[in-house]
Design brief:
By secondary structure, the protein is mainly beta. It is 0% helix and 46% strand. It has strands at 2-6, 9-14, 23-29, 39-43, 46-52, 57-58, 67-68, 72-77, 85-90, 95-101, 104-111, 114-120, 128-131. Strand 1 and strand 2 form a beta hairpin.
Length: 158
């Protein structure tokens, strides 16, 4: 599978490695995105994947009010167009760190109050936040870059 960004929008493609086997599974958005990062995880024969939403998000509820690039969308596919659906949108953060427990997919999903624990059974109705880990707070964790050779890390204290 591959996610392709073209002037026609953001699309999911499948291939067996040959040009004749390459086909578009589904157009996920008619709006192209200039952001390229994405995540994927296979569970129960289906591909769960996230990518940056091309739709802007109004940040009025977070003290902003300006529209910024959208957050992330979580999707699932079985490789067919009807079997490809959006599970959830995360307007202010990314999605990642997938793991399976008792046949459910658990992952980190970003929201207005920071990163939270989410779970999915592979349906939109069965994709939900498990617990609010950051009640009433907005948490933004800046990544700490690895140090260059012969340098100490310059990370903020936890």
């Amino acid at each position: 599978f591959a996610l392709a960004n073209s002037p026609q929008g953001f699309e999911l493609w499948a291939t067996q490695g040959e040009p004749t086997s390459t086909r578009r599974v589904k157009r996920l958005s008619s709006v192209p995105s200039n952001r390229a990062e994405r995540t994927a995880f296979v569970h129960n024969g289906r591909l769960f994947f996230s990518f940056p939403s091309p739709m802007p998000v109004a940040l009025g509820d977070m003290g902003g009010g300006m529209a910024e690039p959208g957050g992330y969308e979580l999707w699932v596919t079985d490789g067919t167009e009807p079997g490809t659906q959006r599970l959830a949108m995360f307007p202010t953060g990314d999605v990642g760190e997938f793991t399976v427990f008792r046949d459910r997919l658990f992952f980190r999903g970003g929201g207005p109050e920071g990163q939270e624990l989410w779970s999915s059974d592979g349906t939109a109705q069965g994709t939900q936040q498990v617990i609010d880990l950051n009640t009433g707070t907005t948490v933004i964790v800046a990544p700490c870059a690895p140090p260059l050779p012969n340098q100490r890390p310059n990370c903020p204290p936890p």
